[in-house]
Amino acid sequence: MLIREAIPADADAMSDVLQELIAAGKRTRDADADFVLSHYLGHPHRLHCFVAVDDGGRILGFQSLKRAHEGNPYGTPIGWGIIGTHVRPSAARTGVGSRLFEATLDSARDAGLRAIEAYIGAENAAALAYYEALGFETCRRPDGAICKAYRLS
Ligand SMILES: CC(C)(COP(=O)(O)OP(=O)(O)OC[C@H]1O[C@@H](n2cnc3c(N)ncnc32)[C@H](O)[C@@H]1OP(=O)(O)O)[C@@H](O)C(=O)NCCC(=O)NCCS
């Protein structure tokens, strides 16, 4: 498995990851390539977006890291990072998310972030367990969600 920075040409394959999550009942929101371009690849507060690619060149998942800005939709403190992770259900539990986080964590340190926050649906047991396994700890509980933070300083 190769981890590399995502490029605009990855938009369709990243959209396919999101479509697979929708088909598996693990996502309800937008998933088309335009959404991937605006929300991840071309987002003005993007710090990084890493993709995990298998030996055949197939994208198995991706992880986005944005810098929290004033008025961000999650209420994440300014100066923190906002993380989002999406792995194909067919590749789940094979270490894709963990490998992506190695790259994201290095980048977050390089960017001087004080912490990284994940905004997770309160019912999303897999994501809660995933972030806990990486060392994230619950920092706040907005309505219907649990926010977990990984402190860097
Ligand atoms: C949550 C998600 C990112 C995990 O990715 P992954 O590639 O399967 O994670 P990994 O294989 O690296 O798992 C690392 C550890 O996390 C924990 N974990 C991951 N998925 C889990 C699950 N379904 N149940 C319990 N623990 C889980 C385990 O401790 C696991 O280690 P182990 O397999 O050695 O026991 C993936 O399931 C996903 O994309 N879910 C849908 C999208 C989503 O909800 N994203 C998070 C919101 S930002």
What do these coordinates show?
The protein has four helices and seven strands; from the N terminus they run βααβββαβαββ. With 153 residues, it is an alpha+beta fold. Strands 1-2-3-4-5-7-6 form a seven-stranded mixed β-sheet, with helices on both faces. The model has no long low-confidence stretch (mean pLDDT 97). Coenzyme A binds next to strand 4, helix 3, strand 5 and helix 4.
In short:
The chain is α+β, with helices and mostly antiparallel strands and 153 residues long. The chain has helices at residues 11-23, 33-41, 96-110, 125-134; strands at 2-5, 46-53, 59-67, 81-87, 115-121, 137-140, 145-151. A hairpin with a 5-residue loop joins strand 2 and strand 3.
Please report the first level of CATH classification, the CATH class: Alpha Beta
Structural class: alpha+beta
| Alpha carbon gap, first and last residue | 30 Å
Portion of residues in beta strands equals 25-35%
Radius of gyration from CA coordinates? 14 Å
What is the averaged pLDDT score? 97
Overall number of structural domains? 1
Question: Mind describing the biggest β-sheet?
Answer: 7 strands, mixed
Please report the total strand number as a whole number: 7
Bound molecules: coenzyme A
CATH fold-level assignment: Aminopeptidase
Could you give me the name of the CATH homologous superfamily?
Answer: Gcn5-related N-acetyltransferase (GNAT)
Sequence stretches where pLDDT stays below 50 over 5 or more residues: none
Based on the model shown, name its key terms.
153 residues; Aminopeptidase; seven-stranded mixed β-sheet; globular; binds coenzyme A
